[in-house]
Amino acid sequence: MERIPITRSGYDKLKKEIEHLQKVERPQNIKAIEEARAHGDLSENAEFTAAKDRQGFIEGRIGELGYKLANADIIDPDTLSKDCVVFGCTVLLENIDNEENVKYQLVGPYEASIEEGRISVSSPLGRAVVGKKPGDEIKIQAPGGERCYELVEIL
């Protein structure tokens, strides 16, 4: 069984979501199914069909989250060395071509969100940055061509 790295906050977020599904969404959906059944003929009952579809989604998501939680390997970034880039580090990169700075935290694949400044350690940029030290140059192949960054700082 493959262990997947995750931060404590990422683990807590998944745990909160599964609890919400189990304690709030599932009971609400059961009520919706019961109410739809009370309307009679199930073969032409759109509410019943929608509630059953929702039930399938909820149960599937609970199963998916359960798998993720069971395989999670919680890593506390504060306990790791900041000599070079490792899981959990926040890095400041400078795009060498346009001199723009970007800041990313390296996280596990379950908690990556480019909008929130978190990239997966298994992404091309994440893999390229791991093990680097401030001042190192990082080259990655992107869909738009090669991109070059300089690791400015490990935050």
Q: Can you describe this structure?
A:
- The chain has three helices and seven strands; from the N terminus they run E-H-H-E-E-E-E-H-E-E.
- The protein folds into two domains: 4-74, Transcription elongation factor, GreA/GreB, N-terminal domain (Helix Hairpins, Orthogonal Bundle); 77-154, Transcription elongation factor, GreA/GreB, C-terminal domain (Chitinase A, domain 3, Roll), CATH 3.10.50.
- With 155 residues, it is α/β, with parallel strands linked by helices.
- The strands form two sheets. The chain has a five-stranded mixed β-sheet with strand order 5-4-3-7-6. A two-stranded parallel ribbon has the order 1-2.
- Helix 1 (8-37) runs antiparallel to helix 2 (46-70).
N-end to C-end Cα span = 32 Å
The name CATH uses for the topology of the largest domain is Chitinase A, domain 3
Query: Under the CATH scheme, which class of the largest domain?
Result: Alpha Beta
Oligomer: single chain
Q: How would you describe the shape?
A: elongated
Looking across the biggest beta sheet, what order are the strands in?
5-4-3-7-6
Class from secondary-structure proportions: alpha/beta
Tell me the name of the CATH homologous superfamily of the largest domain.
Transcription elongation factor, GreA/GreB, C-terminal domain
